[in-house]
Design brief:
Shape: globular
Pfam families: FAD_binding_3
CATH class of the largest domain: Alpha Beta
Number of domains: 3
Organism: Floridaenema aerugineum BLCC-F46
Strand content: 25-35%
Radius of gyration: 22 Å
Strand order of the largest sheet: 3-5-4-12-13-14-11-15
CATH architecture of the largest domain: 3-Layer(bba) Sandwich
Number of helices: 16
Oligomer: single chain
Keywords: FAD, Flavoprotein, Monooxygenase, NADP, Oxidoreductase
InterPro entries: FAD-bd (IPR002938), FAD/NAD-bd_sf (IPR036188)
Largest sheet: 8 strands, mixed
Cofactor: FAD
């Protein structure tokens, strides 16, 4: 009997889940519901976007679907290391053994969508845009949506309800489906904003850009107050990234005109300040300040038919670049569990919680506390990474890879990485708490 799967959220993990389920033959009829418009038709604002970095975990998950890796790499830039820029003009280089695949999140979604729709017809999968999830009835296994008239052919908005055999919530950190878990027995949810906010930055293509900031590297700058800038080259010749800054006592939110924006960037991130256009200075000033919500919950399933994945289950700080990678890894793990349990959905979703929770909790700790905020401890972090890399290269049997290598260049479970680096994480956590308390 064909089972009906409703996937809420057409982000990277939701679409990849559809790809994986379709690999299992004709067992599933899949309906995907997304609150936003089709990104292939409607351009999205850049105000809150920043590049995604796909490392070993994410790329391994994509490899299971023929053609996905090639499609993603065709619209990506490969990063072979990181460059940390100092105010005195010096640069510290942190090389990578394996390259990092970077691209805009919207472009990743479009690539996954195109591959999904080109190989299946709508008797197996349908994608419904402009559909906001409004209600879930776990007992009757129904989910309701509000379809907006905006950007659709509808004359007016409408509400509708569908049945499901399996409901997969891939609807992000502010998941509507997960919020309905709060009405169930013994469900625990911890929501926390990281102490840093951010704004996006865009630099247009130019010859100067290529010569001043070497392509193929993630470029970063840090200020003494913890403000950090991260910029990446894009395929179209532009550079994009973000400025992270403490929510309390920061300079960014006090900028009041384009001239002050220019002055701020030239004083603190001189290479970017010299390349920033008047238009970008004005647009940066007008962009809203964005916050990052992290999520930790004590289970990722409800009953025998509802599953949380990706940010809906375990949203984390972007500091380690693992949010999307962990979400894509969720899909590969669930697929493996389905194999082990012969597509018994009730058993598989419970097993997903058991198998994934320790790693998801560890990822929160790593993302929150691997990178120190203070300048002195950050220099110690760089030295620690370089020493660990060198020792592992010389004596691979005796010394493990560095913490950052294990996170981004291997598929070692996050819980194991946390255990190996518990002392450092505890040290950074104490230092960061003290730093933000003194702001």
């Amino acid at each position: 009997m064909v089972k009906k799967v409703a996937i809420v959220g057409a982000g990277p993990s939701g679409i990849l889940m559809a790809h994986y389920l379709l690999r299992r033959g004709d067992k599933y009829q899949i309906e995907i519901y997304e609150r936003r418009s089709d990104p292939r038709l409607i351009p999205f604002s850049k105000a809150r976007t920043f590049p995604i970095s796909l490392s070993e975990r994410g790329m391994t998950a994509l490899q299971k679907i023929p053609g996905l890796v090639e499609a993603v790499k065709a619209i990506s830039v490969e990063m072979k290391g990181a460059m940390s820029h100092q105010k005195n003009g010096k640069v510290r280089v942190l090389p990578r053994e394996k390259t990092l695949t970077t691209l805009d999140r919207t472009n990743l979604v479009i690539a996954l969508l195109n591959k999904l729709t080109e190989k299946v017809d709508n008797h197996q999968v349908n994608i419904h845009f402009n559909c906001q999830c409004t209600q879930v009835d776990f007992t009757n296994k129904t989910v309701s949506f509000h379809k907006t008239a905006e950007q659709t052919n509808l004359e007016e908005s409408e509400d509708f309800t569908v049945n499901y055999d399996l409901l997969i919530a891939a609807d992000g950190a502010r998941s509507v489906v997960r919020n309905h878990f709060l009405n169930t027995e013994l469900f625990e949810l911890q929501q926390k904003y990281i102490p840093n906010d951010y704004k996006s930055v865009y630099i247009p293509p130019s010859e100067e850009l290529k010569t001043q900031l070497k392509p193929g590297y993630i470029h970063s700058w840090r200020m003494d107050d913890g403000t950090t800038m991260i910029m990446l080259h894009q395929l179209d010749g532009t550079m994009s990234g973000v400025v992270y800054f403490p929510r309390q006592k920061n300079q960014v939110t006090n900028l009041s005109n384009p001239e002050e924006v220019w002055q701020f960037f030239r004083q603190n991130f001189s290479e970017i300040g010299q390349l920033m256009t008047e238009t970008e200075a004005e647009e940066f000033l007008a962009r809203p300040v964005s916050s990052v919500l992290t999520i930790r919950c004590n289970r990722y399933h409800q009953g025998d038919s509802v599953l949380l994945i990706g940010d809906a289950a375990h949203a984390v700080s972007p500091s380690m670049g693992q949010g999307c990678n962990a979400a894509l890894e969720d899909v590969a793990i669930f697929d493996k569990i389905l194999d082990e349990y012969s597509d018994n959905l009730a058993l598989a979703i419970k097993e997903f919680t058991l198998r994934r929770q320790a790693d998801a909790y560890a990822l929160v700790e790593l993302s929150d506390n691997a990178f120190p905020t203070s300048k002195g401890l950050f220099i110690q972090f760089l030295l620690r990474e370089n020493v660990a890399r060198t020792l592992h290269k010389l004596f691979p049997q005796r010394f493990p890879p560095s913490m950052f290598q294990m996170i981004s260049e291997t598929a070692i479970p996050y819980s194991e990485i946390l255990q190996l680096n518990q002392g450092w994480i505890a040290k950074v956590k104490r230092a960061n708490e003290k730093f933000f308390a003194n702001l």
